[in-house]
Structures are given as structure tokens and as C-alpha cells.
Amino acid sequence: MSLFIGIDSGTQSTKTIVLDTTTGQVVATARASHRMIPGLPPGHAEQDPKEWTAALDMTLEAVIAKVEPQRIQGIGVGGQQHGFVALDEGAEVIRPAKLWCDTSTVEECTLLTQELGGTAWIIRELGLPFLPGYTAPKILWLKRHEPANFKRLRQVLLPHDYLNYYLTGHYSAEAGDASGTALLNVRQRTWSTDAANAIDRNLIEFLPQISHPQTTIGVVRPQLAQRLGLPPATPVSTGGGDNMMSAIGTGTIREGIVSLSLGTSGTVYAYSERPLIDPNGEIAAFCDSTGAWLPLCCTMNVTRVIDHFASLFGFDKQQFEEAVRAVPAGAQGLRLLPYLDGERTPNLPQATGMLSGMTHRNLTPQHMARAALEGVARGLQYGLKRFQKLGLTPTEIRLTGGSARSALWRQTLADLFGIPVIKIAADEGAALGAAIHAAWMVEKGNEPRGSLSRLIERIVHVDESTRCIPDPDTHALYQS
Fold it and tell me: Does 415 participate in catalysis according to the annotation?
């Protein structure tokens, strides 16, 4: 029995699993929630990193107690992307972390773009533009709005980097997660001195070294290992961003497969053997955590929009779906532009939503429920179409997230996309990918891609009973 721990530290909670790579089964799970900092101005979203470490300790203790600890061979960490963790000279957290969903940095994005000569040059240099969600403008925000805190800055970490530091005491970065900072040249997998200097001449010194994806960044600190009951010198892999770990956990390591995560936000991502640079900057040209690339599109308005419309009419999830099914596809002309939280793709952080096509016939709770579902789905389709224009040809869409369990969601997406849709059998997502990544680190060998493929083939499965084939007539209706 070979056991590996996988950790997914997200915005709302930390989920930790133990994977038995011999059987391919998850043998222990635990979850602990995080709190957001309340009362911040509109557009600001922050968390105390102590929330993450407390949740990490709690979930590690819980899963280790359910297995034979001496069989644990490694740990992998996945974390929410783009968050800015600022450490001082003593490795103390200077202030709460600004998160991926913080949109307070619109002005900083404009200033950085102007400083570096415009969006076209930035995309050529970095592979993606400066967007409010990314880390780079958050660092400039700190310099402009909290200069005393910026003077204390000595280390810039992402959330997963910070958890790796907490576990091992070593600073490290990984190209997949680092590509979401807008400070990395994604083609070369190296920090961009030009981008860092646009913020501050000293910033390049505060960025951790980029580690190879199939390496150990260190071992769990002896005191922490003893307290948690881990074996001495338990290795920790580089890990990566939650999207990069989810790509491994869904088997998105060959071209043709596109994965779609349905959560508070919606994320569409695919595997690419080459950097996939969008000249419009709408598809993020991220690296993945295996040595390849992970073009990605994120939309901000998914389940929160559905939950909002359901609450308007007092629907629970089942009642909401019944309301949608009571109305034909297309909602008889009623359309929702679902930008209730602004939007990231397209980059419209201050946009608002719009309901259009209203008539006496279609202005009902049932029609609005269908318009909400179809509006959210069209937002995801926007990114998928952009993938196709850039040369990717999806043959299958793999779904993760809570809404992936819904046959209505799956069929709606299949009909809209015109591509078969199927749910991943496991619900662990990024945590599963992090555990597989840790196992890959230990296996090493002369065929790194081959060993990862074999692990995924043994562990990651789709649920064939959930496969949805597009209905030609409904797809034609949506196309029109």
C-alpha cells in the first residue's frame, strides 16, 4: 500500500485526501472551512493565511488518524491561484492576502500596461496581459496604497507556495501557479525582470526560485511531522495552482480533452504541448504542472448566479431544475447576461448583468430560471469558442464541481457546445491531482510523461453513465 496526501486549499475551504496509488482509491478525506475578511470595500476580497494553515493542520490530523501513517510517502499541495501573500524579513505575514476574486486593482493594471508599452508588447513578453485577478497588480497596489507595508516586503508567495513554506520551511515556486502572477514569461518559464521592474526594482529579489515540476521542494519540518504523526522526512512535491492540480485530477494531460470546473467561478482549461498565446489576451496562456501548458479561461459568474435566481423565487436546487425543464430551450427569447459580479472573461470587472427579450409570455420564474442557466452556460461557451479559434479541437468535455452531478447541467452544456460532456467519477478534483503529483514525484524514472500517464490511467476515471451527447436540434437552436 503506497499512500500519498493531496491538499486542495481553496477560497472556501481546505480539502485533504489520502490516495492509495496501489488500488487507485481515496481512503481518507477531511475538510475545514475558511472565512473571508468581512466589511471590506466593494471589489476587495481578502483572507488571513492563518485560516489556511489552521485548516491544513486540522485536515491533516484528521486523515492521518484514519490510515497507517508510516505508509505515507509524500504530500502534494494545490492552492487557489493569484493570491498575494506578503512576507517580511522574518517570514511573518505582513497583511491579509488579496485573493483571485479581488478586483480592486483595475488602476494598477492600467499603470503597469502603460509602463511596459501596451498590451501587445506585454502579451509578447509574458504571454498574457495584466488583469485585476492576477498577482502583479496586487503587489503594485500594496506599494501605492500601503507604502509602509511594502517597505517591509521581502518575499512574495502564492497561497500554495505559502503552504509549501509552512510545511517545509523552504521558499519555492512552480511554473503553473507562477504563470498566474503575470510576472512569468510563460514560454521560458522564467520570471520577467521587465515586469518585476515595472513594479519595483527590488521585486525580482523577492520572488522564489522556480522549481522543476517533478521535484521535491523539501521535507516536512521535523516538529510539524512529529505533531501530525507523519513519518520523518516526508517529502513535499512542488504542487501547483488548483487549476493545474485539477488538470491532473481530471486526466487533462493530452490534447483533445477539455475540462470544465463548475463552481463559484467557471474554469475551462485544456492541455497543450506548446504555449498557446491568445493575441487578445482572453485565454490565459498558463503553464501546467507537468512541463507543458494549460490554456485557461475563467468566468466569474456561475453557481452564484444560479443560487441568486433560485433564492429570488424560493427554489431549492430540485425546484430550480424543475422550473428550467418546464420551459423550452432558448427560454422563448428571454436572455440573461449574467455579469452580476463583473466579469473576467471578457475582461469587464465593472460590468453589470442584463435581462433582455422580455414579453408577457416569458417573464415568469420558470423562464428566468432557464435564462439564468443558459446565460451562465453561454459565458463558459465564450471561452470554449476562443480555444477553438486558437486551434484547439475539443473532442470531450470533462466536468468537475458540484453542478457536474446534475444531468440538466450536463445536457445543457452538451447541447450548447455541440461536444459530448461527461462527469469525472471522483469528486476530489484538485486534491486528487495533488496526490497524484506527489506520487509522480516519488516515482520519477526515465519516462516522466509515461509514469504520469500510467498513474492517471490507474486512478482517474470518467463516469460513463453521465455521458451526454448533444441533441442536434437543440444545438442548432442555440447556434441560431
Answer: no
Which cell numbers in the block locate residue 311?
Answer: 433564492
Contacts of 147 (CB under 8 A, 6+ apart): none
Q: Which of 242, 288, 341, 415 is flagged as catalytic?
A: 242
Q: Could you write out the three-class secondary structure of 131-150?
A: CCCCHHHHHHHHHHHCHHHH
Burial (CB count within 10 angstroms: exposed 0-12, middle 13-18, buried 19+), residue 360: exposed
Which tens digits make up the pLDDT trace of 154-171?
999 999 999 999 999 999
- 243, 269, 300 - which closes a domain: 243
* Under 8 Å between Cβ of 305 and 344: no
Segment 326-364, tens digit of pLDDT: 999 999 999 999 999 888 888 888 899 999 999 999 999
Q: Pick from 243, 270, 296: which residue ends a domain?
A: 243
Grid coordinates representing 108? 494598477
Per-position DSSP letters for 278-301, written without gaps between them: -TTS-SEEEE-SSSSEEEEEEES-
Question: Angle CA(255)–CA(252)–CA(411) in degrees, nearest 5?
Answer: 95
Q: What letter does residue 188 receive in the DSSP assignment? A: T
Whether 336 and 286 map to the same domain: the answer is: yes
Identify the residue whose cell numbers are 488538470: 247
Report DSSP state, residue 82.
Answer: S
H/E stretch holding 417 reads helix 407-417
Rounded Cα distance between 283 and 449, Å, is 25
Residue 460's domain is classified under what CATH number? 3.30.420.40
d(CA 73, CA 2): 7
